[in-house]
Design a protein that fits this description.
Elements lengths: L6 H14 L7 E4 L3 H10 L4 E4 L1 H12 L2 H12 L4 H15 L5 H8 L6 H4 L11 H11 L8 H27 L10 H10 L2 H13 L3 E8 L3 E8 L2 E11 L4 E4 L3 H5 L4 H9 L18 H14 L2 H12 L1
Parallel strand pairs: 1-2
Antiparallel strand pairs: 3-4, 4-5, 5-6
Helix pairs in contact: 1-2, 3-4, 4-5, 10-11
Length: 324
């Protein structure tokens, strides 16, 4: 909806977004690589990590090298859950195979690897998003309500209709998460039930898939220290794939060096394997990200109303009055 796609225009848009969000800036941003937008992001969201859209990168790889196998290998280098050393080895082998080491686009994209390679952005909170498809999807939904020929009044009216439509869908999803209990499917019933109680329906389905896969993880050894235990885990028949899970006993917290929790906000299979080994019947608090929980919206509403009314008793009475 910006008529002039200049740096100044984008800076204005991002500052207005920051204002609408109460001054809370995003920690991660995905764009198609537009220079003006990149400069604006650096100016307004200086602490945010900037990621390049995977779809646009693959498209550029196809255009600049024009070899399907190169695009396939480039995709693997970009999206594979590998360590930095393995990424560098695969990248070097790919350049050697296709003889594109001196190609200008290849040099430029390698210099930006911290903005697109999973090996370098592990631990950044992108919750699995690597493209701007969510944004394009929103554009398509908006296009069903708004047309280019509309004047300002028609635009605002139909834009509000679009917002109402999206909110209705959100309310329906909230209702499905809050009511009804999913059928338990794993052999770890207590841990699965704990996930069903804490997570929204969609997030729970992802959590359950990890819980199913944790049986493929073997705990090789446990290194006991004063306030923590370090569990060395290995994927089934993958001796080269080992991860360390740290159990901080005093805080009852778990951390894994695969950084899936930090990247996706969901416990990894390595942590879940340790929870099974220790016979946990519920998820520790540090493994339930508030934004993925059923109580996320309730907490936000409570904070907003608390700041408005100040006293918890007044808040309670106001809710009672509203319901009456």
């Amino acid at each position: 909806m910006v008529s002039c796609e200049s740096i100044a225009s984008y800076v204005w848009v991002l500052r207005k977004l920051l204002e609408c969000m109460g001054g809370k800036a995003p920690t991660a941003v995905i764009t198609d690589g537009d220079r003006s937008m990149r400069v604006a992001i650096q100016e307004v969201f200086s602490n945010a990590h900037h990621c390049l859209c995977a779809w646009h990168l693959l498209k550029n790889a196809t255009v600049n090298v024009c070899k399907p196998r190169f695009t396939s290998l480039f995709r693997h280098c970009m999206l594979a859950d590998i360590e930095v050393a393995e990424f560098e080895m695969l990248w070097d082998a790919m350049l050697e195979e296709f003889g594109v080491r001196e190609l200008e686009w290849v040099k430029e994209i390698y210099e930006k690897k911290s903005s697109w390679a999973t090996a370098y952005i592990r631990g950044r909170f992108y919750v699995g998003l690597r493209t701007i498809s969510r944004c394009e999807s929103l554009h398509a939904k908006l296009g069903r309500f708004v047309e280019r020929r509309y004047g300002i009044l028609e635009f605002v009216t139909n834009f509000q209709r679009c917002v109402d439509f999206l909110r209705d869908n959100k309310e329906e999803l909230d209702f499905r998460s809050s009511y009804g209990t999913p059928v338990l499917q794993t052999q770890f019933l207590e841990l699965e039930k704990s996930g069903a109680i804490n997570f929204t329906r969609e997030i729970f389905s992802r959590y359950r898939e990890s819980l199913k896969r944790c049986v493929w993880v073997t705990i090789l050894e446990c290194i006991k220290r004063e306030d923590r235990c370090v569990y060395v885990t290995q994927k089934h028949r993958r001796p080269d794939s080992r991860w360390n899970v740290v159990h901080m006993r005093r805080k009852e917290e778990f951390v894994c060096n695969c950084l899936r929790m930090e990247s996706f906000g969901l416990p990894c299979v390595h942590i879940l394997a340790v929870l099974v080994r220790l016979d946990f019947d519920s998820l520790p608090k540090n493994l339930v990200l508030p934004r993925w929980s059923k109580a996320a919206k309730e907490d936000l509403c409570y904070e907003r109303l608390s700041s408005q009314y100040g006293d918890a008793g007044v808040l309670y009475r106001s809710r009672g009055t509203a319901s009456d």
